[in-house]
Amino acid sequence: MRFFNNRFFLFVLLIPVIVYLAWIGYKTYQEYQQYVHNQNATRAVKLVNAMSQLNSAVENEALQSALLTKNKTRQETAALSSARYSTDMRLGQVLNHPGFHPDTPSLQKVVSLKTQLDAVRALVDNGRKDHLKIFHDYYDLRILKTVLSAMQD
Question: FRET partner for 137 with CA separation of 20 to 30 A, picked from 19, 94, 122, 145?
Fold first, then answer.
């Protein structure tokens, strides 16, 4: 008991223990921050992957639309229908992705894609032969650039 009454020894024993506990706490906090950073990076990579798949699906739909405007066969119609379904599925995956927050401009851009896709699909379905307007103005300048700009944000 006399040992603990001596303040010097108590001070000498307590300071290293307190410093050690503070160091352990600091290291734990650093590891936690690294974990959070890795989680956010993984979410961002998955979002970019989903956007890339959406881009590929839109390009495939544009190709199938071009083939359908050239020759309207059952095969081309079925292929276009399949491409449209794939595009809608990829768009849904991007919209439901946890990396998007409702108030981000990127999400607003992706939401506007659905109306743009519906407009160009109506032109293709109605048999419009204005290829420059359909494939350059709509698919390239509006839809694909919207996807790419949303990926950049």
Answer: 94
